[in-house]
Amino acid sequence: MGGASHPCGCGSRSRCMSPVMRLAFVALCWLSALLAPPLLAQTSESRPPETQRNQTRKFALVIGNGQYAGANRALKNPTQDARLMSETLLKLGFEVQTHLNLSRADMSQRVSAFAAALPAGATSLVFYAGHGLQINGASYLMPVDIQLSSEQNVQLRAYPLRRLLDEVSSAASAVNIVILDACRDNPFQPPPPVRYRSNGPMGLARVLAPRGTLLAYSTQPGQLAADGVGANSTYTATLAKTLLDPGLTLEDIFKKVNTLVRNATRDDQIPWFETSLTDAYFLIPPEGTRITAGQSLRSGVGSSVQGPQRAAFPAEATLPTLWFLGMQAHELGKLQAHMDQLIDDLGATDMPKWQQQAEGGNVVAMTLLGRLHLHGAAPWRDAASDASVPLVSDKSKALHWFQKAADQGFPIAQFELATMYRAGDGVNPDQAKARELLQKASKARYRRAEMELLELNIFGAAPR
After folding, report:
1. Which residue in 37, 61, 159, 210 has the fewest CB atoms around it within 10 Å?
2. Is 21 part of any domain?
3. Does residue 95 sit in the same domain as residue 165?
4. 330 with 434, same domain?
5. What is the rounded radius of gyration, in angstroms, for the C-alpha atoms of the chain?
6. C-alpha distances in angstroms, 56 versus 161, 222, 244?
7. Number of Cβ atoms within 10 Å of the Cβ of 385
8. Any idea what DSSP says for residue 127?
9. pTM surpassing 0.90?
């Protein structure tokens, strides 16, 4: 049997339609085609999956340099860090260009082309992983083809960080993010302990963020960051995960990364960032906030949001607790024992190393320096001069370092500072100040502080 025919026997519904009906039918088909969503072709290499259509366009340049020539100069993590960051940025809607192991000419060409192509109002992000160093206060990113023969050679053949910032800040983009996992040592400086005696020869120098730019380092200016023992550096792995947290401003993201990296490295690495952005900026806006992802919210970072946006925008994101504030009593006891052992085993390179770490924000190094300056130290043999180096007591320096660590909430430093105030050791006696510090350290479950507080409450001031 054939298919069913129209009642008139023509076998077609359209043939027997009246002219009016036929016209209505054609108009309906045309309207349906007009309203149908268009098919868009995207590449998986550099473009994100289909996202919200009204987003501000976001562009990223990711560079990973690891295959350096020369003994002990190659790095295993930068190429993997670049790939991880590229994958993360694609998830956030960035159009990503990824380049590995670039020469100086390639770095210059890629950065210039990237900046020149940025459209007006766009968001740009540049991520670099690899060697970086500072010479005479200027920071340089290292291409893989550089020959490390002299500092003058580096200044001529490395890629200046200032040039990167100038290229990006002069582009048409509205918001620029520059991330450097590149804080390595200057190979032309003398070996330890000389290299640790000032900030000058170590890491990357501080550079002020240009207009409309957030500049982030994997560690403090003048400090070092290790290549890492896992598949990725600690900083990049932490950053890639945190970037995907919804509802955080850029500042909140990098504050959280700072704390997480400090916790993971026990203050051996303390990230740093600075920003000239004046508005709160989201990669993933808070739920219910009526702004486009990737755009700024004019708020002064949570201080002046009005109307229905107010509830959706937190005044300050909840950040993780610093590693030493979450320790149990027995863990603090083990840390104190470890610090005691470090003091007992003091060597020629320890003092300048702790000085460098303390200036970078390491609370353990601050407290160790405080103890050395408080009590002095027996002479040790300096490897550079082969001379006997004593350390005499300097109570003002001890007070300085204990205070800096105590201000960050480090309970062991709070205890040490309290004993100085209780005994009037290098300071005017102040029992109220001592009690306040001991209460803070006791709240953090530090047993020595609990015992000292009990003794203070029973006997009062310590004998001088």
Report:
1. 37
2. no
3. yes
4. yes
5. 30
6. 27, 35, 17
7. 11
8. E
9. no
